Amino acid sequence: MSLLPHFDVFTVGSHPRDQLMPPGSPIALAAPGTAAPLAVLLVGGRVAGVWERRPKGKRLLVRVDAHQPITRRQRNSVSEQAERAAQVLELQCELEFGPVPLRFHL
Predict the structure, then answer these.
(1) For a surface tag, which of 9, 62, 81, 91 has the fewest beta carbons within 10 Å of its beta carbon?
(2) What are phi and psi of 58, to 5 degrees?
(3) C-alpha 61: how far from chain center
(4) Distance between the two ends of the chain, CA-based, in angstroms?
């Protein structure tokens, strides 16, 4: 399980695309052919959702939108990764799970 940033090499270079993004998934429908312009949640080598981060004062707000059920262990892994991202930015992490709009980074 990984939180991948926009234009991560894995999402840019993975082929065939239908193995990376299940056809008919919200991400495949919103971004035909590539998930590269999205920050994605990767589960088992497949795109399983999106995430966003926003600095707010001394906090880093991280919201994860899993498009499939995830286990407690997977949630803990996401929490650890979000904490690490905040630590690198010298901010306190605030993690939540909920809807994230499919906004593309240009």
Answers:
(1) 9
(2) -95, 15
(3) 13
(4) 25
Cis peptide before 55 (omega within 30 of 0): no
User: Which carries the bigger pLDDT value, residue 10 or residue 55?
Assistant: 55
Mean pLDDT within 93-99: 97
pLDDT at position 37 is 85
- The span from the CA of 103 to the CA of 80, in Å, is 24
Answer yes or no: is pLDDT of 69 > 60: yes
Largest separation between any pair of C-alpha atoms in the chain = 41
Residues 12 and 53: their CA atoms lie apart, in Å, by 20
Kindly provide the b/e burial profile for residues 10-34, where b requires at least 16 CB atoms within 10 angstroms of the residue's own CB: ebeebeebeebbeeebebbebbeeb
Report the residue count for the chain.
106
Report the sign of the C-alpha dihedral through residues 20, 76, 80, 105, in that order: positive
